[in-house]
Amino acid sequence: MAMTRRAKKKKSFKILADFYAILIYAVFYIPVVVMMVFSFNDQRNNYYWAGFTTKWYGELFNNHALTDSLWYSVVIAILATLISVTIGTIGALGLRKFEFKGRRFINQMLYIPIIVPEIVLAVAILVVFMTVGVRLGMGSILIGHCTFCIPYAVVTIKGRISGDDNSMEEASMDLGANRLQTFFRVTLPSIMPGVMSAAFLSFTLSIDDVVMSNMLAGAKQSTLPVLILSMSRSGVTPDANALTTLMVLIIVIAMVLNNYVKRAYKKRRKKEVNL
Amino acid sequence: MKKKNRLPALAMAGPVSVWMILFVTIPMFFIIFISFMSRGIFGDVVYDPSMESYLTLLDSTYFNVISKSLKVAAFTTLACLGLGYPFAYYIAKRPKDQAAKYITLIMIPFWTNTLMRLNSWLLLFQTSGPVNNFLQNSGITDAPVRFVYTDELVALGMVTSMLPFAVLPMYSSIEKLNKSLLEASADLGADARTTFQKITLPLTFPGIFSAIILVFIPSLGVYTVPDMLGGGKVLYIGNIIKNQFGMIRNWPLGAALSCLLIAITGLLIFLYTRFTSIEEMEVV
Amino acid sequence: MSDSIVSLQGVFKKFGRNTVVRDMNLEILEGEFLTLLGPSGCGKTTTLRMIAGFEETSAGTITVQGESVENKEPYQRDVNTVFQNYALFPHMTVFNNVAYGLTIRKVPKAEIASRVADMIDLVQLKGYEDRKPDELSGGQKQRVAIARALINNPKVLLLDEPLGALDLKLRKQMQVELKRLQKRLGITFVYVTHDQEEALTMSDRIAVMREGVVDQLGTPSDIYDYPRTRFVAGFIGESNLFEGTVEQIQERVMTVRTEAGSLLVQGEGFAVDERIHVSIRPEYVEFAKEPVEGFDIQGRIKDFIYMGTVVKTAVDLKSGQEIKYSRFEQDQSVQSGDIVYLSWKPSRAVAIKRGTEVEERYEEEK
Fold first, then answer.
1. Mutate which: A4, A5, A11, A14, vs C, most C CBs within 10 A
2. Residue ranges of domains in chain C
3. Phi, psi of C191 (to 5 degrees)
4. Pick from B52, B206, B232, C273: CA 20 to 30 A from residue C131's CA?
């Protein structure tokens, strides 16, 4: 069918818009692709491209500085996620469902770690720790990470709680469940998607963090991002690229699997409903 | 009347409240307190009230760092708004399920270590890297161009790492914009440009302001980008603060600089709450 | 009256493979109140949006005052719209919302002030000029939306289910007000609704739409008394429908044999042995204890349904069909379980032709 002048104008504008969007996505993805490509570079400092090799994927396990800091980071990220999601979940519910003195104040406090530059919060915590005499190490890094993960967890989960409406909980208690049963059987399952995304967010924030880890680390061991930052002066070596590539692949595979399981589960449920 | 059972409220809101007070409220007040103290001989704090640190900030060395940081942060913010708004608009105009996929597509690169992604720009632009090779092979330049450790490369790193934080809040406010308002405007005689100025822009302003806060403030305090891409030669506020608590050790000065960042943050948040609630801000 | 102001010729609208409006031909007359009536998804709103310019036609032409509008953007067309959910600008006061069209046209400030004041007077919103839309009730928002659309003195005002969000009482009141406003201003109104009662109350003419096609176009009484298709008969008011064969024709009165028995209906253009449908409104159905000449429809009274102003009686026919008749009061002479014979004046019943294009499609869907 013939297009009107208006339709033609719209169409050419759309092509332009598509092109722009692709350009922006390219800016996001180029660094990731480059990072992966250079994990196959046969040059010790990655100064120039010297040919294809897969040797770094073997050698990275001999680089103890790298594997130790990775291990350190993973342990901290897992612990930070567990602590933040636990405190964040019950905290989000408490802040949403109960009215108490100081609620507004706590709500505002939660936005400080999210908005204020991380370096400010990091030095503030450092100064308190030093003054009180807390020994720096994994514990202090963990506290630092939780301090910015908890607010994100609370905000993420709060968005999933259906207003100030308590009717679901009231129905549960009306049917004879006590508070604890109600929490585990009704409240928690209803906000589970929020809890899961809070956990994912906490883990990625913690494992990627430089500033807090850098300021609050002890003398002995540092996290992976801090190690990478210190490597950058002399050039980040390709085994770090190889390690990061592996980490990305693991996350992507986990996400795909997660999606697949979810979809299969939904399908089965649909079938059951149709029967 | 029966006394209300306070136990559930205490058990649920208690831990988060205690954590926030211990590790946010107290440290923030303490760092403000320290900024008004004096420096001891070894860089430690002497509890003797003084404005010395704030006066030091007016020294040309520090003042230049501050103004340079402000300039870079302002540039980053403007670039992110300019590049991000049309992009956010583009995504917001997709059908709902498609838009969700487009948003996920923005998030995926963030599963890659931030520093390694920054390092990629170095790899691309280094003296014998792909960009220089291309420029020389195609005869555009004879000798390699020096990109590494320049302000331009730092700016590139800042903009690319901050852009998503501008896109997301703007996307969600554009997405909320009721399409029939734009139709109503056109119906009443406004062309596309006028409609954008009079309807779209004012109604998506909260999203734009969120974007400003979420880009400008972190840009002001960041030190990883200049460290990685600027070779650590150019100092920004973030580097100076870090150094005062590390090798150089001047706690009151570092605290005063921190307070400067807190004050700027506070000012922007105050402006933001003039027209919308802080809890409306889309941060994730 | 009666020059065509908006004209649709062979208009199609497709969304992907889905045809929403097909081969629409419609002449909207100057100064009339025309309603596009139909169930959701019938293409009535899409038709309105094509006239406004928010959607482009896939084929066909739309002219406003004799001029084709295909290449005109919405802001270049002399029509204005009242939106379904008002679409008031939330960041502007009532005054600025109403003034918007004039501000855009750069009308001098003093003139804007006086014209907006007049318009706000017209919709009875004096004193609300400085309020923001979210400080208004639904009815007040509605008035602002109307005032805003009228300020540009449009040739045609398009209204997309404007009363849909209001409660019943307010809706009735606004119907009357809107109709009066239209009479007073003499502007052509094109009104979209799915509420048949609203359409009957307000319109000069109604176009009943289904599946992207106009089934029938006519005055409210035309459409109510002489539905041309079974769909129109069923959608506008309530109808009892029979299907049968014409047995004989005597001076326009046909005897029709149906499964329920034979009956009489008046109609023209039908032939003996033709299969037809017969529609009869509940209020025209009569009942008796004895058979009436020409009819032998016998049934058993099932129950009485009290509806406020009328009482409906449901009658089970031996064919299994249920027929309803309505009366202002319950007739005490019959009780449920009684056998009654149904009849009507042949001129009150409507004969509907089978095999027309619209009827065939209706058949297929069923």
1. A4
2. 4-230, 242-365
3. -120, 130
4. B206
Pair B116, A240: CB distance under 8 Å: yes
The answer to whether position A36 is within a domain reads no
pLDDT value of residue C363: 59
The C residues from 54 to 93 touching B (CB cutoff 8 Å) are: 54, 73-75, 79-81, 83-85, 87-91
Query: B247 in contact with A at a CB cutoff of 8 Å?
Result: no
pTM: 0.81
What is the value of ipTM here, to two decimals? 0.84
Domain count within chain A: 1
Mutation target to probe the C interface, by most C beta carbons within 10 A, among B177, B178, B179, B187 is B187
pLDDT at residue A125 in the model = 92
- The secondary element (H helix, E strand) that includes residue A268 is helix A238-274
Q: B233 to chain A: which residues are within 8 Å by CB?
A: none
Report whether pLDDT(B236) > 80. yes
| Top-tier CATH class for C242-365 | mainly beta
Q: What is the pLDDT of residues B156-173, one digit of tens each?
A: 999 999 999 999 989 988
Element of type H or E holding B185: helix B179-187
Alpha helix locations (H) across chain C?
A: 44-52, 94-104, 109-122, 138-150, 168-185, 196-202, 220-225, 230-235, 357-365
Asked whether residue A4 is assigned to any structural domain, the reply reads no
First-to-final CA distance of chain B: 43
Residue A238: strand, helix, or coil = helix
Mind spelling out the 3-state secondary structure of C247-286?
Answer: EEEECCEEEEEECCEEEEEECCCCCCCCEEEEEECHHHCE
- Does any CB of chain A come closer than 8 Å to the CB of residue C61? no
Residues of chain B found within 8 Å of residue C73, distances taken between Cβ atoms: 186, 191
Residue A97, in any domain of the structure = yes
Alpha carbon of C124: minimum distance to chain A alpha carbons (Å): 37
Mean local confidence (pLDDT), A171-181: 76
Give me the CATH topology for the region C4-230. Answer: Rossmann fold (3.40.50)
What CATH number labels B63-237+257-280? 1.10.3720.10
Give the C-alpha separation, C70 to C278, whole Å.
Answer: 43
Of A46, A120, A236, the CB nearest to B261: A120
Confidence band, pLDDT 50/70/90 cuts, at residue B1: very low
Contacting partners of chain B (3+ CB pairs under 8 A)? A, C
